[in-house]
Design goal:
Blueprint (H helix, E strand, L loop, with lengths): L1 H13 L10 H6 L7 H17 L2 H14 L17 H4 L2 H10 L2 H16 L17 E3 H17 L6 H14 E2 L4 E2 L2 E3 L19 H17 L4 H18 L9 E2 L12 E2 H16 L6 H17 E3 L5 E3 L2 E2 L16 H4 L4 E2 L3 H18 L1
Antiparallel strand pairs: 1-4, 2-3, 5-6, 7-8, 9-10
Helix pairs in contact: 3-4, 3-15, 6-7, 8-9, 8-10, 10-11, 10-12, 12-13, 12-15
Length: 376
């Protein structure tokens, strides 16, 4: 179905407007007004990558039009609220660097500075890591590394003095506090204060290994490594990346190459092979190999995962159009008044599974672009 993937992407674009994109299922279901968010950021990142590798200008033009709806001439951002100190809101900012380079629009540069101001003021744990959100005090989630640290790296290298020591320390802390050496996997979250209802009272860790959280982390490392110049920081990050990828690879389904929603629980009742996290790990493997950080067998493994997703979840409707299924809509930890989100196995398998959401589509398209790079 490779030859139909770009037609699928075109259908999503043609059916979307900046205020109501087809791929933002969570916003559509909840009836939220248009606002700056990480889900759209993931998709626009994928579109820019697709434009670069395919030469299809329409992808980049759509991305620019989409972001222009949200970023005003003075650099203010529609629906962005700094006082929430939500790391998710930083993610979409990474595309501003590319769009500024492409167009020279000053409003993109000003918006970059607005988002950077949040990181300067972001509350931190006693270890120096960003709180995931203001409503999650002292909590570090794997997701947050992707949401904030790719942006912070790009800022340091293009707008700052090149100092990435803060990013490096935050990632080292994640390796130290969230990595299980026996399993070779990272827990979804860690509460430095150990007060959250979902946190282990001794370690502060959440209870399980959620696939997409690990996927976010692998993508963050692959992308950051891609931006960093050669040197000790890059090599230190590469060591962590290799360790995490090797750990995750142990749990690949032998038939499809995909990974389970709760990674180490295999075919336990209710568990399922999940698209978004599988796509993320496959993308990280493919990109890591292209960058020379991983040995070639990981490109083979990543392609097997991508092909497995195509075979299992990329389906054709009666009208000949494709849908991408097997996507966990959302998962999180808490807050205090939302105790269903307790990090248990039962919780992770209870969240809705949907089609065509950007959480799965974006990394799937990024995988496709890496495979296209291998083929050229």
């Amino acid at each position: 179905m490779y030859d139909m993937i770009e037609a699928y992407l075109k259908r999503l674009i043609d059916g979307s407007t900046p205020d109501r994109p087809l791929w933002n299922i969570e916003n559509i279901r909840q009836g939220k007004p248009a606002h700056w968010n990480y889900i759209d950021g993931c998709m626009i990142t994928a579109l820019l990558s697709a434009s670069e590798i395919t030469g299809e200008q329409n992808y980049a033009d759509f991305a620019e039009k989409f972001i222009d709806y949200y970023v005003q001439e003075d650099g203010s951002i529609l629906g962005y609220e700094k006082p929430k100190y939500n790391l998710d809101d930083i993610n979409e900012g990474r595309v501003l660097f590319d769009l500024y380079e492409m167009t020279g629009k000053e409003k993109y540069r000003m918006a970059i500075e607005r988002l950077h101001e949040q990181l300067l003021e972001q509350p931190r744990t006693e270890t120096g890591n960003f709180w995931h959100k203001k409503i999650y005090p002292d909590q570090v989630w794997l997701d947050g590394i992707y949401m904030a640290q790719v942006f912070s790296t790009r800022y340091a290298l293009t707008c700052g003095n090149g100092d990435v020591s803060d990013m490096m320390q935050q990632i080292r802390n994640v390796r130290r506090y969230l990595y299980d050496t026996e399993k070779g996997l990272l827990y979804h979250g860690w509460d430095c204060s150990r007060r959250a209802f979902w946190a282990d009272p001794e370690t502060g860790r959440s209870a399980n290994f959620w696939l997409r959280a690990i996927g976010w982390f692998t993508v963050a490392l692959a992308d950051i490594i891609g931006y960093l110049p050669d040197g000790s920081d890059r090599e230190a990050l590469c060591e962590i990346f290799r360790e995490v990828i090797a750990g995750a690879a142990q749990y690949a389904d032998t038939e499809t190459g995909m990974y389970y929603q709760v990674v180490d629980c295999g075919d336990r009742e209710g568990n399922y092979l999940e698209t978004s996290g599988s796509s993320m790990i496959a993308y990280a493997m493919l990109k890591g190999t292209r960058l020379g950080v991983l040995p070639p067998e990981f490109a083979v493994a990543g392609k097997k995962t991508f092909d497995g997703i195509c075979q299992k979840y990329l389906t054709m409707r009666a009208d000949g159009e494709l849908n991408l299924g097997g996507i966990c809509l959302v998962a999180g930890l808490g807050p205090e008044d939302h105790r269903r989100r307790d990090g248990s196995y039962e919780y992770y398998i209870s969240e809705p599974v949907v089609e065509n959401d950007a959480m799965g589509v974006a990394p799937f398209i990024l995988c496709y672009t890496e495979i296209k790079r291998l083929m050229t």
